[in-house]
Amino acid sequence: MDGASDGDRHDDPCSVLSDERQALVREVLARMVDKWGLWVLSELSEDGPLRFSRLLERVDRISQKSLTATLRQLERDGLVTRTMVAQVPIRVDYAATPLGRSLIDHVHPLWLWAIERLPDFVSARAIYDARTAEQQPS
């Protein structure tokens, strides 16, 4: 026993979910912290709707293939909409949905926290790297 009574513990919201629902929650959260998802969603939340080519310019170093895959997943999860505009040539616009903007609103404080703590991360990495370098055989 860990010494905490059941009343002292936080309720685990996942405990009432089926295995299938828990897997979906993990999948959506993993997508949020993947390499491109939040960045693309942030760009669309700030300045959307945007065309694919504008997103490609704004998300530095993303490939067309990765942007396409990211947008499809964000759309599938209800975080982004894709609108085809009938003109020549056909134009496709992407925009954050209210759900997508809500996610960014919740993640923004975490980004600010990370920015404020950058010196701590840099220091911790330097200490770790120095310690592990000393442990390496010559």
What top-tier CATH class fits best? Mainly Alpha
Overall geometry: extended
Side-by-side strand order of the widest sheet: 1-3-2
Mean pLDDT across the residues is 88
Biggest beta sheet attributes: 3 strands, antiparallel
% residues in beta strands: 5-15%
* Tally of strands: 3
CA radius of gyration is: 21 Å
Query: How many helices?
Result: 6
Order of helices and strands: HHEHHEEHH
CATH architecture tag? Orthogonal Bundle
Number of domains: 1
Percentage of helical residues?
55-70%
Verbal overview:
The longest helix is centred in the C-terminal third of the chain and has 19 residues, at 98-116. Strands 1-3-2 form a three-stranded antiparallel β-sheet. The chain has a single domain, classed as Arc Repressor Mutant, subunit A (Orthogonal Bundle). Strand 2 (80-85) and strand 3 (91-96) form a beta hairpin. The chain is extended, with a radius of gyration of 21 Å. It is mostly helical and 138 residues long. The protein contains six helices and three strands. The chain has helices at residues 19-32, 37-47, 52-58, 64-76, 98-116, 118-135; strands at residues 50-51, 80-85, 91-96.
Topology:
Elements (H helix, E strand, L loop, with lengths): L18 H14 L4 H11 L2 E2 H7 L5 H13 L3 E6 L5 E6 L1 H19 L1 H18 L3
Antiparallel strand pairs: 1-3, 2-3
